[in-house]
Structure formats: structure tokens, C-alpha cells
Amino acid sequence: MVKNTNKIILLILIVGIFLNIFLSYKNLKTFDEYRVTAEGNLQHYMIRSDIYHGWINADKFKNDLEKKNFFNSLPIYDRSFLPNIFIGIYYDLIDEDIFDKIEINEDQKKIKKNNGKLGFLIIQIILFYFSVYYLSKKLKNKFSHKNIIFIVGFLSLEPSILQWHSSFWSESIYLSFLIILLGKLINLKDNILRNIFIGIFIGVMYAQRSASFLLILPVLVYYIIFFKKNIKPYIFLIFGYIIVLFGIGVNHYYKTDKFFILPYYSHLYSNYHYMLHEMKAKSNKISYQKALKEKIEKEDNWKNLNNIDINNFKDIFLIINYRNKEFLHEVIKNPFNSSLYLLNKISQAAILDPFWVKKNLFLDKSIKNYHIEFKKDIALRILYSLIFYSISLVGFLSIVKNFLSKKNKTKYDNFMILNFLIIAYFFVWTGGYGVSRYFVPTIVNFSFFLALGISYLFLKKE
Which of 152, 330, 378, 379, CA to CA, is 20 to 30 A from 198? Predict the structure, then answer.
């Protein structure tokens, strides 16, 4: 049985690797091109918006490596950090240019075509399937062979996950990191170096994606459940995490004379920017447009009163502080409406979208009501999501049933609690944006509940 399980797992992983390499090749052949937006701007299909900004930083990092040491070449964590470093190192190693010599205009560089992009995608594909293989080894003695095969198959081929491997968004590598982290956390040990490493690894995940800033919290709760009164593992876990945060802060201080950890650009355009006017419109029973106008006018008055210069780097942090206070004030003032708003946005974000990457290739935000085209498949997505969450709920309830029956403490109680905590973290921390892309990591955590639900409903119980 063990040999057969290993063979099936390896076959699934090989199929996943070659399928994703094929899809990546096909995507690049079609979409490593430029298009003209409705406003007449030239734009690369695959590398635009936040990705384009990251590649600008990656190019600077790559060029700086030729003249400076590694630390002095590191970029600032504005929107993204580690993805820019990965791209810069990759193109430095293959000795290829990221941008064409001829620029589109003064403000926009032109992404070079046919410059080894497939190689980077292959690396992230191999990393992902290695992480799944690593997890499968760690799941032994926790899940049945059938469940392990299902989990591996699901993670390898589920379209909401699979779509990211043939794109340059940060999700694929982040998912690999999350899967490796789960593998590390399955069997905890009171080992100093091991727990420091886990803390450092969570810090690396934050460097890959800022949504992981407080991911240490659900992991810390899991540590408390696992180690109880033994506080040494908590201390070394937190110490490892602080090492990375401190390193990022020192990098910023060295280059900007200001010690900060959170990505300032993402922090500037976060809850306040996307949510506050919508929440106020609901609370004050006014139109969305009026609430937005009032928000902008109030901020402009504050800037004028305090002589805020938006081009002054240090003043940016005063703006961030102002915006955070305004948002927090609204939440405290109207907790019920704020909670309803969050729940509504979570319900939107929780709708799985296996076609997000494909649709985003054609997304043109210069077109009025562009989002209507983006949501045309909503009925199909809701149906798929309902099936996914319903079976996952069955798996969750089966664990609760076994736990309450007092027969035996199940083999995976603590590990399943960890997955529940991580799901709750992403729901609360990123739910307010209402964007399905931010919820993609939870699919990994849900896969364990889904496997148990499938087993409970359709397979012989083991």
C-alpha cells in the first residue's frame, strides 16, 4: 500500500509539473506581448500594475548588484519585496535584460520579450511541487493513504491554485512557502534552532507577501496549544520572526533614514483607501460618491492645515497615521455596520475564482464598469464554491463529532486547529478587500477539511 501510494503521488506531481510547464509556455507564447488600452496606452498583458512596479524595482536591484554589495542593492519594501529580489537575481544569473533599451515614454519602460521568462516560471513550478511532495511525507501517520493522495491531487491540479504557476503574481511562490510551513508545523519539537527557523520562515513569507504580517499570531496560538506551559518554543519562534522584521527595518533605515517594517505604499493604500468611504456610506445612509467626496475633502483640508507634502517621504508616514486613525475611528464609532461590511466583503472574497489570472490578462481598468465583464462567471463560481465549502464543512464537523464523542483524540486535532486558525486569520486580515486573490492561501488549509469530508461522505472510513 505504501509503495503504491508513493507511486501515485509521484505520478500526480509529474503530471502537475509538465501540465504547468505546458500552460506557462502557451501563456508566454500568446501573452508575452503588448496591447493598447481604451485610453490608448501601451501595456504588457502579463506584466503590468503591481507586477510591473515590482519589475522596475527588480531591474534596479539587478543593476545595483553589478556596482554594490547585496545588502546595499536591496530594494525598499514599498508594495512588494522578495518577489522583486527573486526576479532581479534570476535575470542577473541568466544575464538577460528585463527591459528593452527603447522606452515607451518618459514614465514607462518596455518589458523585453523572449528574455527567459519561461525559466522563472519553471523554477516556481518545481518549487511548488517540491513543497507538495514535502508535505505528503509529513502527512504520514496523520492522514490515511487515500486522504494523502487526495490532498496531493487537489493541491496539484485544482484550477484556483494551478492558475498562479503560469503567471508572475506572487501567489505561486507564496503557496509553496505556506505548504512548507504547514509541513514544518505538523510535528513540533522543543528544539531551539528548529523553532527559530520556523519564525524566520514566517518572516520570509511576510517578505514574499505583506498579508502575512500577523500570520505569526495563529502559529503562536498553535504553539500554546501544543507546548502549553513550556514557553521556550514561543520565545524562539518570535525571536526568529523578529530577526527578519528587524532586518527589513534596518534596510529601510539605512536607505531612507526611517525605521519601518510595513510596506509604506501598500499601507498608504489599504483599509482607508478601499473601505472607509463604503463603510461611511452605509453608516450615514448616503451615496458612495458623496462619502468618497467627503473623505477626499477632509483629507485635503488636513494636508493643507498641516503643510503635508505628498512628495516628502517622511510626510507619507504622517498620511498613513492619519488614514489609520480615521479608519479606526469609523470602526469604533459604528462597530455593527463595520462588522456587516466586513462579513459582506468576506463573502465576496470567499467565492473561488479559477479564472482570475486568465481574466486579468484582458482586464482594462480604463473602461467604465470594467468589473461587470470580470464578474460574468459569478454564477458558476458560486456553485463551485458552495460545493467546495459544503464538503469542507462536512470534514470539519466530522472532526468535531469525533472530538466530542470522547472515543479517542483524533490523530490530527492540533494540526486541524492550526488550519482553522490560519483560515480565520486570512478571512479577518484580508477579507475587507473583497478580492478572491487574497483568499487563495486558504484553499491550501481547506484542502485538509475537504479530504476528510470526501472520506466521510464517499469513502470507507479508516
Answer: 152
Q: Which segments within 2-96 are labelled E, that is strand?
A: 34-36, 42-44
d(CA 123, CA 173): 10
Q: Return all residues near 219 (Cβ < 8 A) that are at least 6 apart.
A: 185, 198, 202, 237, 418
**C-alpha span between 236 and 239 (Å, rounded):** 5
In the structure, how many helices (H) and strands (E) does the chain have? 22, 2
- Nearest in space to 199 (alpha carbons), one of 168, 169, 233: 233
Cβ(326)–Cβ(268) below 8 Å: no
Given a contact cutoff of 8 angstroms between Cβ atoms, the answer to whether 258 and 215 are in contact is no
The pTM for the full model equals: 0.94
Burial of 330 (0-12, 13-18, 19+ CB in 10 A): buried
Q: Is 252 exposed, middle or buried (0-12, 13-18, 19+ CB in 10 A)?
A: buried
Supply angle C-alpha 399, 350, 25, rounded to 5. 105
Residue 18: φ, ψ to 5°: -70, -35
Q: State the Cα–Cα distance between residues 292 and 286, nearest whole angstrom.
A: 10
Which percentage of the chain shows pLDDT scores above 90?
68
pLDDT tens-digit series, residues 346-396: 999 999 999 999 999 988 877 877 777 778 899 999 999 999 999 999 999
Q: Which long-range contacts (CB under 8 A, 24 or more apart) does 356-360 make?
A: 356/160, 356/163, 356/436, 356/437, 357/163, 357/164, 357/166, 357/167, 357/169, 358/163
Rounded mean pLDDT of 144-156? Answer: 95
How confident is the model over 385-421, as pLDDT tens digits? 999 999 999 999 988 887 777 655 555 678 999 999 9
User: What angle do the packed helices 378-405 and 440-458 form, to 10 degrees?
Assistant: 60
Q: Which spans in 110-168 are helix H?
A: 117-138, 145-157, 159-162
Cell of residue 348, nine digits: 465576496
